[in-house]
TrEMBL record:
It comes from Comamonas resistens. Keywords: Glutamine amidotransferase, Lyase, Stress response. The keyword Lyase applies. Residues 84-225 form the DJ-1/PfpI domain. This is Type 1 glutamine amidotransferase domain-containing protein.
Length: 228
């Protein structure tokens, strides 16, 4: 049976101010989906609440809207997947070999506090599966503890969207917390590229993380390598 991948996307459509939209950064999903599809993997889309996953408007504009994202927008079937994601509470961890957290600033609100996502992540990891995240997707790992009570990320090398990148993107005052600092507080061994907005992937065994949207394809490739 081919590997089974659970992609996690957000349900949040805006920053704290409802007039400021955000959502899924589409290319972080599309790059991974295309790569996994090419390997024949079985893929499922889920979100904390289920239902629609809104899209980050900035991810749909040049230069962020690349070929994979344009193809997704043009595919009615795939867009329908984003309108009808599975609810995390209905997902059985034993049905998947890897979990892949996508990003977009929206996930900072709904990923960390989702206990079903914490359960799925813990169970997949403790049963030998892969836990992966790209960009802000690593916020989905902030509150996950292993069965022994230890933070999943404690003592583990990882990366994700940096505070410097938040400032350069002009959203540091809009986000609810500094994800990089919170990871360090959890005991994570946070790493980042010397230059902002360049691809960086960190592989620590079965924990695989990418720093930013530019890291999406390389993060997915590392998942493929880990799954063998």
């Amino acid at each position: 049976m081919p590997p089974r991948i659970l992609h996690v996307v957000t349900n949040v459509a805006h920053y704290t101010d409802p007039s400021q939209p955000t959502g899924l950064w589409l290319s972080e999903l599309s790059h991974a989906w295309d790569l996994f599809a090419g390997q024949g993997y079985v893929q499922t889309l889920a979100s904390p609440q289920g239902g629609a996953a809104p899209l980050e408007p900035r991810s749909l504009k040049w230069p962020n809207l690349d070929g994979t994202a344009r193809a997704w927008l043009a595919d009615a079937g795939r867009m329908d997947l984003l309108r009808h994601t599975a609810a995390a509470n209905d997902i059985r961890a034993q049905d998947f070999d890897a979990i892949y957290f996508t990003g977009g600033h929206a996930v900072m609100w709904d990923f960390p506090g989702s206990q079903p996502l914490q359960r799925i992540t813990r169970d997949i990891y403790e049963h030998g599966g892969v836990v992966a995240a790209v960009c802000h997707g690593y916020c989905g790992l902030l509150e996950t503890r292993l069965s022994n009570g230890q933070w999943l990320v404690q003592g583990r090398r990882l990366t994700g969207f940096s505070w410097r990148e938040e400032m350069l993107a002009g959203v540091a005052r809009k986000v609810p917390y500094d994800a990089e600092a919170r990871m360090r507080e959890r005991g994570a061994l946070y790493e980042k590229a010397w230059l902002p907005f360049v691809s960086k992937v960190v592989v620590d065994g079965r924990l695989i993380t990418g720093q930013n949207p530019q890291s999406a394809r390389a993060t997915a490739q590392a998942v493929v390598q880990q799954l063998g």
